[in-house]
Every structure is written in C-alpha cells, then in structure tokens.
Design brief:
Largest sheet: 6 strands, mixed
CATH architecture of the largest domain: Alpha-Beta Barrel
Distance between the termini: 48 Å
Number of strands: 20
Strand content: 15-25%
Strand order of the largest sheet: 1-3-2-4-5-6
CATH class of the largest domain: Alpha Beta
Shape: elongated
Helix content: 25-40%
Radius of gyration: 26 Å
Structural class: alpha/beta
Length: about 500
C-alpha cells in the first residue's frame, strides 16, 4: 500500500490555523471485520465497507487529511495496517467497529502508532425491525443481517485488550443515522485533535519580561512545551525597534488605511499618534513574519530607553490586528494566557485577553475586560480607538482599543498551573449580555453565568487560576474536555 494513496484530503486552511497547512491534522481511520464471514454471508463485507465510507465522508473538512485503511479482517492485515499508520504519521486513530471481529485484528493496528484512539460503536439503525427480521425465513441470511448490526459485540473485548496493553481509548456510541448525537461528538473529537495539532506546531514569541510582582502569571515554559508542544521563540524588543526604524512612508500610509477600515477611530485621536501606531504595526507584522510566530506574549516598560518606550507604548492597534488575524497577542507577558488565546482561536472562537474586575449584583453579571489588544473580530460592532493620556500602572501614553464581545454564548478558558507544575484547563460557559460598560478605552463586557455571579467568581477562584483568562464566542466546554483528554491534562468545568 502506497502511503501517498492513503490520504484523502481536505481543504484550504482557514486563517486561524496560521499556516498550519504544512502540518494538517492526519486522522487514521479503519473498520474491522472477520475474514471467515465473507464466504459465508453474501454481501456482508461490501455492506460494512459502505458503513465505513459513511464515516470517512463525515471526516472530510478543511485542515484534515484522512488515512482510511478500509476493513481490517485478519491479524496479518492488522500488522500491515499498524506499519501504514506509523508511516502516515497519523495524529489520532478512529476505529469503526462494524461487526464482530477479533481483538487480534485491532491491537497491532494501534500499538505501533502510539496516538489517541477513539472507538466508534455506531450501529446502522437505532433498532432492528424485529418482525421483518424474523420473517426472513433463511437462517443464514438472518445471521448475516444480525452480523450487519452487531458492532457493539466486540467492544468489550477490544476494551479489555487495550486496558491490558495499557492503551488509552475513548468511545463514541450511537448510530450512523443523520442527526444522531454521535456525529456531534465525533466532530468535537476531530476539532479537538485539530486544535491539539495546531498547538503542537505553534511558535509562541516571548518579548520583554513579566510585569514586576505579578506572581500568578509566572510559569515553567518548558512545562508548557511538554504539554502543548510547539516552540518558544525569544524575541528582543530591540528587534522590533530596529524594524520600526526602516518602515517607509508608503508602508505607514497603507497601515493607516487598514486602521480606518478595521477600527472606528474617534475624532480626538491625534494624527501623529495614529502614525506612530501605524509604524509600530508595520514593524510588528514584519517581526511576526520573520520569526514565523503563531502567538505572542509581551511586556516591556522601556524606561530609560526613549525608543523602546515609544515603540512599546504604541503596540495596541497593531497587536489587535494581529490577534484578529489568528496570531493572538497577550499583554503583561502572560504566557499561559497566550496559550489559552491560541486554543480559542484555533477552535475558531476568537480568544480575547480578559479578566474580571467588578460585579454588578443588581443585574447578576460579572464585568470583564482589559487594556491592551482585543480580538476585534468577535467585537459587538466596530472597535473604537481612543487616546489615553496614561496607561494605568504602565509607562507611556497613546492609543487604545475599546470593544465589547458580541452578545450571545461565550466560553472562558484559563491554563492553570498546579503547585507541582502540572497544567490543567479551567473552563466556564456563559453569555455576553447587553448593558452599560465602562467607556475607558479598554475591552469591556458583561457576562452572565448559569450559576450566578457570586458562585461563578468563588468557584473560578478556588481553582487557583492566574487573574487573566481568554474569552471566545460559542460554548466550547465539551470540546475543551476532549482537548484535555488528548493532551493528558485535567479539565475543570466551573459552569
């Protein structure tokens, strides 16, 4: 079997994958059967292959390549399939249990790959037509019909073999029928695997240093790579400053035009401040391209170096544009939150930097936001640009963005570091709701949670997260749970 023939491709990679077309998610798929059945039951094999084809067609999507090895029905084929999956460098394997099959036809397939395994226990219909079945009259045909519906039979056998071989696995149980909840669960697994793949190839830039005294955001960066994969690229502020010196008038003008298209620039924004932000934005684009960054965490005071202070006090518009392009930027050197934002973005949910700062007990909502870059693609309306005479607690002044996250379902995500250094994902689902916000040139939103504001804050806090988190649109807790399973991370859902 030629490896090049194994792949059924997919798609054009969307923007939020940030160039991951070089490393698309490779999904291994195979079905199982018993070779002894084929001469006994006419048409059974082709029928089961049809079931497998249904599954394969559901897998097709942008950013995913499917390696479909077909029906594996003997230990010999199982051994060859194991080698094929390893050569194909699959990231995850889906096993479709079509009928009874021996565990010896399964174990060799997954042993060599050493990747997560999802068992698909999907029967063709919700229930047999018992009357029609019993009227068939031919017991051989009846047995063949039975075998076409008894995929659940070998699942305990397979699970036993996996457990004894120390192979972890997950299950999806349901039917092949359109609209069955199993299909949504399969989608969630594929999307979680795609996000894990994105993180495994992401290059996270680190520019500057921690905000002095902000102990909760410190992290073991080696541990970050151990869990998520990817690469941490140290980037010097001087590199950004040097690129900024060489920005041309034409490049600045083009960036100013992009500002006018992307933002609602308020009348009190001075032209020289807009030009300053534009030159910095052009330099940021070049830095990201040169270093091939998929995300960035930054903070640098620049005190004592006028050029550095000038650069770092003018990054907010440029970093907001980068975040909207699928290159999330976390301020205050919040490495853990840069990871959370990248996860959100890879799920196609946005991923904006935020923290809670107050509660409205009258309306039972939590007020959340932050200064610095915002994810303008998930904003309610066009993001405003406002001038600030002071960056609270930070050096300099300049332009800032003001936005609220669009109203509707949202998910909060925090990457949390335990006392022993291990990591977990902390998740909460809620709603972004209408109401007054603080118009102070920051991102600001009102969030309502099903457990209420008081309980949410207490339950979130007791998990020991850093005070920053990422917010994205839509409810993603189920997918986050699957991502955690694939990354061997605990996942705690607050609500």
């Amino acid at each position: 079997m030629d490896d090049l023939d194994l792949f059924v491709a997919a798609r054009d990679v969307t923007a939020h994958t940030n160039g991951m077309e070089k490393h698309p998610l490779r999904v291994g798929l195979f079905g199982i059967g018993l070779e002894a059945y084929w001469p006994q039951f006419d048409g059974l094999k082709s029928r089961l292959e049809g079931y497998l084809g249904q599954v394969a067609r559901k897998f097709a999507r942008p950013g995913v390549e499917v390696c479909n090895l077909g029906l594996i029905d003997s230990p010999e084929k199982a051994m060859e399939a194991g080698h094929a999956f390893r050569r194909a460098d699959v990231d995850i394997i889906f096993l479709h249990v079509t009928t009874y099959a021996l565990s010896s036809t399964v174990l060799p397939v997954v042993q060599r790959a050493k990747v997560p395994v999802i068992i698909l226990n999907l029967q063709p219909v919700a229930a047999l037509d018992y009357k029609a079945f019993n009227k068939m009259g031919d017991r051989t045909k009846m047995t063949g019909e039975w075998l076409a519906h008894c995929g659940a039979c070998p699942v305990p056998e397979i699970a036993n073999a996996f457990n004894r071989a120390r192979i972890g696995f997950h299950q999806v149980t349901g039917t092949l029928q359109p609209g069955d909840p199993a299909w949504q669960e399969i989608d969630d697994w594929i999307e979680a695997a795609r996000v894990a793949n994105t993180m495994a190839h992401n290059r996270l830039g680190l520019m500057g240093h921690y905000y002095n005294g902000m102990l909760d955001i410190h992290t073991d960066t080696t541990r970050q790579i151990a869990y998520f994969g990817g690469h941490l690229q140290i980037v010097e502020v001087e590199e950004l400053a040097a690129l900024r010196r060489d920005v041309t008038a034409e490049e600045t003008a083009a960036k100013l035009a992009e500002f006018r298209q992307s933002f609602d620039i308020q009348p009190d924004c001075a032209p020289d401040e807009l030009e300053r932000a534009a030159r910095t934005s052009v330099a940021l684009d070049k830095l990201v391209a040169t270093k091939n960054l998929g995300s960035l965490a930054y903070y640098h005071m620049g005190t004592g170096n006028a050029e550095h202070e000038d650069v770092m006090s003018s990054v907010i518009l440029g970093t907001s544009l980068l975040t909207a392009r699928g290159i999330p930027v976390a301020g205050e050197y919040e490495v853990k939150n840069a990871q959370a934002m990248k996860i959100m973005d890879a799920f196609g949910a946005g991923g904006s930097f935020t923290e809670y700062y107050a509660m409205d007990f009258d309306d039972d909502v939590v007020l959340m936001g932050h200064d610095g870059p915002g994810h303008i693609k998930i904003a309610s309306g066009q993001t405003k640009v406002r001038p600030l005479e002071v960056y609270h607690g930070k050096v300099g002044k300049g332009l800032s963005v003001e936005m609220s996250v669009q109203h509707g379902p949202v998910t909060l995500l925090s990457v949390v570091e335990y006392a022993d250094g291990s990591l977990k994902l902390l998740v909460a689902e809620g709603q972004s709701v209408a109401g007054p916000i603080l118009e102070i040139g920051n991102t600001n939103s009102r969030y309502r949670f099903p457990i209420g504001a008081r309980a949410f804050v207490e339950r979130w806090n007791e998990q020991g997260p850093a005070h920053h988190c990422a917010v994205g649109v839509g409810h993603l807790a189920d997918r986050m749970a699957k991502l955690g399973a694939l990354l061997s991370m605990d996942v705690v859902r607050v609500c």
